[in-house]
Amino acid sequence: MNIMGHLQQLGRSLMLPTIVLPGAAIFLSLSALPWASIGLPDMQTHLQVAGHALFAYLPYLFAFGVAMGMTSNALTAGLAAIAGMFIYTSVINASHYELEPTVLTGVLIGLVTSIFNERFKSIKFPEYIQFFGGPRFIPLAVSVFSTLLAIVMVQIAPYIHNGLMELGEVIESGGGFGVFLFGFVLRILVVFGLHHLVSHVFWFQVGGYTSGDGSVVFGDLPRFFAGDPTAGGYMAGLYPTMMFALPAIAFAIIHEAREDLKPKIKKTFMIAALSSFLTGVTEPIEFAFLFVAPYLFVIHALLSGAMMWFTYELGIRHGFSFSAGAIDFLINEHLATRGWLLIPIGLVFGLLYYVLFRWAIHRFQIPTPGREEGSQLDEWAGDIPYRAPLILQAIGGKENIVQMEACITRLRLKVGSDKLIDINALRHLGAAGVIRLGGGNVQIVFGTYSELIREEMDKAIRRDISRVLFSAPMQGRMMPLSEVPDPIFSGKLVGDGVAFMPDKGELVSPVTGKVIHIYPTKHAIGIRTAEGLEVLLHIGIDSSQLKGQGFEAVVEEGDQVKSGQLLITFDMQKVRKGSKSLATPMVITNSDLVSSWSFAPFKGVKKGQASVMSVVLKERSGGGETA
What we know:
Layout: H1 3-15, H2 21-30, H3 43-56, H4 58-70, H5 75-93, H6 103-120, H7 137-173, H8 175-190, H9 195-204, E1 208-210, E2 216-218, H10 220-225, H11 238-255, H12 262-279, H13 283-290, H14 294-313, H15 326-332, H16 342-363, H17 384-394, E3 401-406, E4 410-415, H18 423-428, E5 433-438, E6 441-445, H19 450-462, E7 467-470, E8 476-480, H20 487-490, E9 496-502, E10 506-508, E11 513-518, E12 524-529, E13 534-538, E14 551-553, E15 560-561, E16 566-570, H21 572-578, E17 584-588, E18 594-599, E19 604-605, E20 613-617
Antiparallel strand pairs: 1-2, 3-4, 4-6, 5-6, 7-20, 8-9, 8-19, 9-17, 10-16, 11-12, 11-15, 12-13, 13-17, 14-16, 18-20
Helix pairs in contact: 1-4, 1-9, 2-3, 4-5, 4-6, 5-6, 5-7, 6-7, 8-9, 8-14, 11-12, 11-16, 17-19
Keywords: Cell membrane, Kinase, Membrane, Phosphotransferase system, Sugar transport, Transferase, Transmembrane, Transmembrane helix, Transport
GO biological process, one term: phosphoenolpyruvate-dependent sugar phosphotransferase system
Main location: membrane
């Protein structure tokens, strides 16, 4: 794996431990309620202890999360990292220094554990001590490392402690400009999925604060929840961006969409805007314009950084446990300094974004969703089990997947060859963007459905079923059979499948198989797959009346064809003029062999585009006829 691959995996791993922090914020928020007035005076203490406990054990959570994330959820590695943290903490607590493990310590032990796991998980010893070989050697190796690390830290701890405090002071001395740079870089790194690397340095490691009980916490986020009045400068300015600016972009995209597509675009982007406003999940909106107008994304990053600078200079300090959405804003408002100002500032900021983006989309004809062939987003939670096999095919099949993980908004893949990935097909299936990082490392942005997609893809890989996948036989619009203006096809009397309204006069094979029949008039062709499915492709409705004029077959009966191979060319003008419709059905004539069907969205497709239809065959005693 190359450097970018390591970094994207580390970025995902750093997100894993933070999923517990909303619980801490809720406990601390509830502890502020007047429990004594309702006869529960101890409840405040219980809730405060519950909330602070998660922050106290945050280094352990990071050790476990990084070890698991960097090893594809190897439980042995997670256990070894936790054991290493226990050893480390016990050794330093036995010293005469008042030391506390930091998040940086947890990340380091987690990383070392992942390296040991990769290096030693298959290690072999002589038979009489092989008990300690293989995965059982990893906790032993990590224990030794943690002991040595603790001994070294006891010697250099005062210098490290003072260094972190001074680093925080140096960064703070940068004032608003330093906060601006942080905000700008943070948004730019979203493109590569590496924003967690820079955010976690500032949120969990830089700057120290001694709380009332004498314990020292590091990082803007723990300091904020520990009551440090100076903390929150690296978080407060994100609220206007996530709660107001990104939803404003969504509204601009909706209002600039074509009238015929506006209802669908409105539904999709209202959901995306609400997600950004409530939870701070921004990628579905940002990726809607990132690839079609990258210069606009740079402007967005500059404005986001400028907003962080502005709120910092106004003395606004606010924090969050997960992200800068309305839920965190309300839960943590009681800890904020001048936090209420973020609402009017955000409204003005959002209006600026709306005017700027709507003007830019209209002025430069940016193909955002709902206008042309821009990035697509879709609302299809209930359809995930059916689309997962199609997504798997668009990635290049299970044989192309080396490693598959998911974070909050994207699939993170290591593939054998990224050339096998069909980007058009993935966008057709709902991906907002596809990012190639080199070395086979790929990120596919599906929004908050990414983890569900990964689970369904994993099920499809493990499931031992016979599945046949179909590519698009032509460029044009995919449509359900029910829309074909012919009762025989629309009534599925010939067979089940889909249809296409062509944009170009070329028909290619949707599957690999054998040409079993070419009609004399060349307007239709039949293909049998290796599994025994018989596929009929029929160009136009009532097009047989042309008696072959305008059609030319480039294959013959008995030929073996591959998916995407050219079969027939046709003159669209002649076919349109001489037939009832250009609609081209693709049906399986022996659909009694099919157990279940999956269809991609009925949208525009490219010729040969993967993953437009998938069928699962019924179990039967005999195999299909060999093509």
